[in-house]
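Researcher: Please translate sequence to structure tokens.
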Amino acid sequence: MNAKKIWDSYKFPLLLLAGIFTGAVIGIIFGEKAKVLAPLGDIFLNLMFTIVVPMVYVSITTAVGNMVNMKRLGKILGSLVCTFVVAGAFAAVLVLIVVNIWPPAANTAISMGSSEMAEASSISEMIVGALTVDDFSGLMSRSNMLPIIVFAIMSGFAVAKCGGEDCWAGKLLNSLNNIIMLMVDMIMKLAPIGLGAYFANLVGEFGPKLIGDYGRTMLVYYPMCAVYVLIFFPLYSYFAAGTLGIKRMLKHIFNPAVTAFATQSSVATLPVNMDACKKIGVPEDISNIVLPMGATMHMYGSVLSAITKIAFLFGVFQMPYTGAGTYAMSVVVAILSAFVLSGAPGGGLVGEMLIVSLFGFPAEAFPLIATIGFLVDPAATCLNASGDTIASMIIARLVEGKDWLEKRMAGGELEA
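Model: Translation complete:
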């Protein structure tokens, strides 16, 4: 492959990486002065967040409304749950092995200041709050992604009952879906500048902490994420569609991965994920359902980071991190904390309060893992969001059969 073909294939991710690299250099050189660029990054993120609620609602409603075969929808949702649970279990096993070999809090001397912690909600309150809102206006906020998804699925069923894509509502939704994706394309043209500015501010603010008392945790977590990507992503892709699946994944995974790393938001990465799945060849009725749900529920990186934080606190408070009960509780809490995460940057604070509360750590533990959360969030979100793309490929295989991608390629539906 010559330089021109490489540029044509990877032009946009290379521009994104160039923007982020430039922003990181600016952040290192100018430190907190790099905050002057924050408005450029905020403008880009605000545009992405503005489009994401109508995009999620319209894409899911359209996918369900167009689906004549409701058995297919059931198969998609069943495959989605299985994929998310199994992938989360693999991530949990990996991180438990790693934190026992390389404890993240070893030789760490952190002074613990006092911090007031909000009262934790009960499990029932969290479930109700996660799935529903008490007013229609709550459906217009990106902080309520699961209620939006629930409402969109219900709307899709109603549209399907009224005639699907052949009724006037179905035609309107399909047209709106096309319009929204064109708007997403317009916004993404600003990504190299917006992400560069956002990353400059991020590095300028948190850069010094990388070499402080949290350095060992970073040295444990980031290589672990790299190992997960290098081993599990190709394995998942091979299961999804063989060697061709690996090739398609490698060609199109960079845009969502880079966008997620820089924005630290699975929700902001949703539009990019939609485009990546389309180019890979995942059927749109699958990706339009899996990706929005994955942005809230499917958290490889969050499971890895949650257990790393738990092991870190055990070390800081000089408690032995051993025993099947402790490990089982860690996995459950990791999945719960991932489930309640908001799609917004810093949304892990809710999960971190859950960790502190359920394990009975003192309030002083919260600022400790909150700091770790901010430092590991780029890699965690990168795994979460790019993992959604690969999960869509797996679900396509489970729904359509082993040779789903070969059939689409043979039918001329995709670019080589």
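Researcher: Any highlights?
Model: Residues 111-121, 342-347 have pLDDT under 50 and may be disordered.
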